[in-house]
Description:
It is built from 3 helices and 7 strands; from the N terminus they run αααβββββββ. By secondary structure, the protein is of the alpha+beta class. Strand 4 and strand 5 (137-143) form a beta hairpin.
Amino acid sequence: MNHNPRMLRQRPSFAAVPSLSLGRGVSGDASMKWLSLVVWALVAFSAVTWVLRWTTPSGVSSVIRAEPQPMPELDATAVARSLGVAPAQVVAAPSLASRFQLLGVLAGGPNAGAALIAVDGKAAKPFRVGAVVSDGLVLQSAQGRRVSLGVALDGTPTLTLDLPVKK
């Protein structure tokens, strides 16, 4: 009849385990009371939530919707001034002459010669008479310490560059 040896072995029950206390000085009975209080509080909260959901009319929405109102026009400069931003200084476009720097001239006659010109602060490049320097400006002539730039080789000079004086 008692042929199952596992059933005959004694095992401790969970009620006899003293590890359920919450700390020193708190008995197992007190911890069980606190645990049952928390469980019943959760049950009550859940019941109240469901009752409130069921009792609200279906036509009433819990979300309040406000109509969007147009934003007022703001003056960006007035806002910037009120926040302490200094007014932006208008930077004038560089003049045509300030874009070019003449570094050397090789005069060779009326339609011959070359010039060493730096454009927009970049490295200087050699240009022969008749070559396009920048933005449609052509090197028209190279004479002594002066060169002329214009729209066409035979046109009127738009810009005249001189070599800087040696110190």
